[in-house]
Design brief:
About 75% of the residues lie in helices and about 0% in strands. By secondary structure, the chain is mostly helical. It has one domain (about 40-260). Helix 2 (about 40-60) packs across helix 3, helix 3 (about 65-90) packs antiparallel against helix 9 (about 210-225) and helix 6 runs antiparallel to helix 9. The protein is globular.
């Protein structure tokens, strides 16, 4: 007879194996049929970086000794945010066969989308280290706090992902509208510019953007070698956990509607 502990261990192993296989499948599907495959994960950030470097360093001749590493941190961090939300929004409708399978834990679908996007960030992160070193910066000890900032960003993406997955089932235009908004939001986030350039009268509204805190935290740790600003990061972490709790509960309650709409 299985004890409660044995059942818990078997359940944990089952969900871990399922999660591993589905994330691996998700990564494979994204690049299936492409010529360069996973190399696109590395190519696209450098294309964006090249455009920004040409515009701001060559044409506008803006003086910034750390522009390359500063902008690259913003690019790959926002790319994770953008791809996570976009994929999570379409995670249920895009995995109809899995969602309709009896006994399948449909709650995993947004989690898988955010996790696969996070892996792209992790695979690209060594390039940040390389760029920082090439710009003759020493790697600070505070860089070991990066997983903490990543955990906050993951939680934020997961919470928003659950809510967007629900909306996308109810309103099929959600994903298309989201993709447009995320492109606009790209320029409203300090991806390639210093947030201090934002006029003071707009700063309070601007700081409500969660990516302001996320990007500043990454740069504090990697470029400046200092602790992130704990108060805004803690507030964002609490907010993100609350959104995850709300999102999962609503997602579970609306799961019957998913089956009908799919």
């Amino acid at each position: 007879m299985f004890t409660v502990r044995d059942k818990f261990q078997r359940s944990t192993i089952y969900y871990w194996d399922l999660l591993y296989e589905l994330v691996r499948r998700d990564l494979k599907v994204q690049y299936e049929g492409t010529l360069l495959g996973f190399a696109w994960t590395l190519i696209m950030p450098f294309l964006h970086l090249g455009i920004f470097y040409f515009l701001f360093k060559i044409i506008l001749n803006i003086e910034s000794p750390r522009f390359t590493s500063y902008a690259f941190i913003g690019i790959i961090s926002y790319t994770w945010f953008q791809s996570a939300l976009s994929q999570a929004a379409g995670s249920t409708s895009g995995n109809r066969d899995l969602a309709l399978r009896p006994g399948f834990p449909i709650t995993l679908l947004p989690f898988i989308a955010v996790s696969s996007s996070m892996l792209h960030f992790i695979f690209t992160f060594p390039l940040i280290i390389l760029i920082v070193v090439l710009e003759e910066h020493n790697l600070p000890a505070a860089i070991f706090l990066i997983p903490l900032v990543m955990a906050v960003q993951f939680t934020l993406c997961l919470g928003l992902g659950y809510l967007l997955a629900i909306l996308n089932i109810i309103f099929r235009d959600t994903k298309n509208i989201l993709d447009v908004l995320l492109r606009l939001f790209y320029f409203l986030s300090p991806v390639f510019y210093d947030p201090q350039l934002v006029p003071e009268q707009y700063r309070r509204l601007y700081d409500l953007n969660p990516m302001v805190t996320i990007l500043q935290s990454y740069r504090d740790v990697i470029l400046d070698g200092v602790m992130p600003q704990w108060f805004p990061l803690t507030v964002l972490a609490i907010f993100s956990m609350a959104i995850v709790w709300i999102g999962v509960r609503v997602f579970q309650k609306q799961s019957y509607r998913f089956l009908e709409e799919l």
